[in-house]
């Protein structure tokens, strides 16, 4: 963030304090690292300067984008500060978010949005757009499956049954990761972790096993679909 923008931001936050208003921060790049995959190039280089202002002026939440996945992250150093990313229309489930403000509370809730009623007649004739929600689900599963297939082929795995199992597992993981459904129950996690396909990935590809692992449980904020904050 440019120095002049930081100066402007501090002026606005100061005005909010003077007028007894609670500031909410909106920006494109992030001020918090949401996970190990989206840090360099996704988090502001001088995020610490922004977080200093967040702490000084008691900003409760930031709404940001750029990473195109559904995620809510709590700051590890500022216990009352959260950053929320709502995934893009081009991501499975096409999320939109509802933010409801009350004098002492903020509520954030994700809604799965179906854009098809807004398509033109010509657009609806295209198979992908006519079945857009399912197309996106299949697309994100396919991206993960392709990643698994290419990785295993590169390391010399030829067993088609094992490759197919890995494709299905990583495909489902990729979908959960981007849609924010990465907080499974203990039973659901155990079912995946004891699956022979997962054990195969642990033995053959640390990268793919980690991809699945990240989609099972979000240790920071288990619920990435909704948040209720008590405002200062």
Automatic annotation (TrEMBL):
UniProt keyword terms in alphabetical order: Hydrolase, Metal-binding
SUPFAM superfamilies: Metallo-dependent phosphatases (SSF56300)
Residue span(s) of domain Cyclic nucleotide phosphodiesterase C-terminal: 117-218
Pfam families reported in the protein's UniProt record: CNP_C_terminal
Designated name of the protein: Cyclic nucleotide phosphodiesterase C-terminal domain-containing protein
Keyword Hydrolase: yes
Domain of life the protein comes from: Bacteria
């Amino acid at each position: 963030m440019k120095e002049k923008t930081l100066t402007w931001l501090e002026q606005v936050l100061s005005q909010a304090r003077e007028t007894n208003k609670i500031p909410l921060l909106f920006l494109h790049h992030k001020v918090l690292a949401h996970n190990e995959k989206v840090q360099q190039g996704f988090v502001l280089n001088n995020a610490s300067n922004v977080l200093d202002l967040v702490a000084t002026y008691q900003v409760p939440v930031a709404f940001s984008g750029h990473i195109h996945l559904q995620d809510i992250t709590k700051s590890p150093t500022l216990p009352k500060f959260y950053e929320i990313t709502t995934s893009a229309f081009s991501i499975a489930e096409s999320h939109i978010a509802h933010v409801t403000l009350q004098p002492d509370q903020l509520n954030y809730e994700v809604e799965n949005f179906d854009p098809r009623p807004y398509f033109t007649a010509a657009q609806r004739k295209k198979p992908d757009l006519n079945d857009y929600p399912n197309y996106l689900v299949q697309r994100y599963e396919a991206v993960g499956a392709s990643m698994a297939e290419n990785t295993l082929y590169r390391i010399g795995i030829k067993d088609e049954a094992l490759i197919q199992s890995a494709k299905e597992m990583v495909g489902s993981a990729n979908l959960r990761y981007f849609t924010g459904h990465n907080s499974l129950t203990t039973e659901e996690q155990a079912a995946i972790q004891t699956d022979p396909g997962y054990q195969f990935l642990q033995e053959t590809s640390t990268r793919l096993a980690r991809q699945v692992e990240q989609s099972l449980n979000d240790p920071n904020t288990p619920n990435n679909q909704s948040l209720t904050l008590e405002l200062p």
